[in-house]
């Protein structure tokens, strides 16, 4: 990847339709915890909510779009989600 490729893929903030995908263990409260944390840190578009379970049902993926205001906000969201102990990956 060249420097020009990196620059062309740089996110412009604020980004009003930024997708967040959170993968964690399937269980009671996972979806609600993810939504609560995202809503605490950003304006969310609940109409974009998508939930999917892995083929064996062990993991759940929650995807939502938020209004991303900057890299600090995204780092804070990542930290808060991981601090729950329920989250394996944030994309």
UniProtKB/TrEMBL annotation:
Task: List the NCBIfam families hit by this protein, alphabetically.
Answer: PRK00341.1 (NF001486)
Pfam families recorded: DUF493
**InterPro entries linked:** UPF0250_YbeD-like, YbeD-like_sf
Lineage top rank: taxon: Bacteria
Record lineage: Bacteria, Pseudomonadati, Pseudomonadota, Gammaproteobacteria, Pseudomonadales
What Gene3D superfamilies does the record point to?
A: 3.30.70.260
Q: Which family does it belong to?
A: Belongs to the UPF0250 family.
What cellular-component terms does GO give this entry?
cytosol
Q: What name does this protein carry?
A: UPF0250 protein IV01_04180
């Amino acid at each position: 990847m060249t420097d020009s490729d990196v620059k062309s893929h740089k996110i412009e903030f604020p980004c009003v339709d930024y997708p967040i995908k959170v993968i964690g263990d399937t269980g009671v409260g996972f979806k609600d915890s993810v939504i609560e944390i995202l809503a605490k840190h950003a304006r969310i578009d609940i109409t974009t909510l998508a939930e999917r379970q892995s083929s064996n049902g062990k993991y759940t993926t929650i995807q939502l779009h938020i209004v991303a205001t900057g890299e600090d906000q995204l780092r804070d969201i990542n930290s808060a989600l991981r601090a729950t102990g329920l989250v394996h990956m944030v994309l």
